[in-house]
Specification:
single chain; mainly alpha; Cytochrome Bc1 Complex, Chain D, domain 2; 2 domains; 0% strand; metal-binding
Length: 243
């Protein structure tokens, strides 16, 4: 084996051809599944889009490196399913750019954290993690509650996501700043437009418990509360398998 490699290295042209051949095989193995992706990704007619506020929360989640300690992919292993719920399906990450599956769990998996705890719990946990989870190693993110959320550029974020396949409409893009404000301010005149554009299941409320201009805490909690709730296809499959 080593003798063959030695002889190959002594002939530049042969070595270049061998590199191209091996790279071609590796590339084909990576690209081939894309030709059958329509057959492997589950259908989810009820799949809804992230709202502008949730997109902002997701951006903050990535900015603060939350994905480094929390995965968002429940494996098919029995222990995973019993602890976190139905295993993750490909369609649930359909609109995630980039995907945040992760591979390390310093903290628990968050794929189905949405609705598991109240907004008050999430805010308390982000402000002082050890106040609600004494063994937590997570740093405090109390500053998010004091940081106003920048909403003026959310339309650009939605435009960028639309370019990679997320079906945001022109109306959604144009109303992104107003929708981000309205989702966190249910008594404002902008709240009705959020449900109109993103569906009645959209969570419209003051996530930090107070009305006013949304903060980065509002956005992050809004994002956490929707994880695992963009579609019910995983729960439907689990119920069908249990019958």
């Amino acid at each position: 084996m080593f003798g063959f490699h030695y002889r190959l290295e002594r002939h530049a042209l042969r070595f270049v051809i061998a590199v191209i051949l091996v790279a071609g095989i590796g590339g084909f193995v990576e690209i081939a599944p894309l030709f059958t992706i329509s057959e492997t990704v589950e259908a989810a007619p009820d799949m809804r889009l992230y709202t502008p506020l949730e997109v902002a929360g997701r951006n903050i989640y990535m900015r603060e490196g939350c994905y480094a300690c929390h995965s968002q992919m429940i494996r098919t292993l029995r222990d995973d399913v019993e602890r976190y719920g139905p295993y993750s399906l490909a369609v649930e990450s359909k609109y995630d750019h980039p995907m945040l599956w992760g591979s390390k769990r310093t903290g628990p998996d968050l794929a189905r954290i949405g609705g598991k705890y109240s907004d008050e719990w999430q805010v308390a946990h982000l402000q002082d993690p050890r106040a609600v989870v004494p063994e937590s190693k997570m740093p405090s993110y109390a500053f998010l509650g004091r940081t106003p959320l920048k909403t003026s550029d959310l339309g650009l974020h939605l435009k960028a996501l639309r370019k990679v396949g997320v079906p945001y409409t022109g109306e959604m893009v144009a109303n992104a700043p107003a929708d981000a404000y309205g989702q966190a301010a249910p008594d404002s005149p902008y709240a009705a437009g959020v449900a109109q554009r993103y569906g009645e299941a959209t969570q419209v409320r003051a996530f930090m418990g107070r009305q006013g201009d949304p903060t980065e805490m509002d956005a992050l909690v809004a994002y956490l509360q929707v994880l695992g709730r963009l579609t019910d296809v995983a729960k439907a499959q689990q119920a069908q398998a249990a019958e």
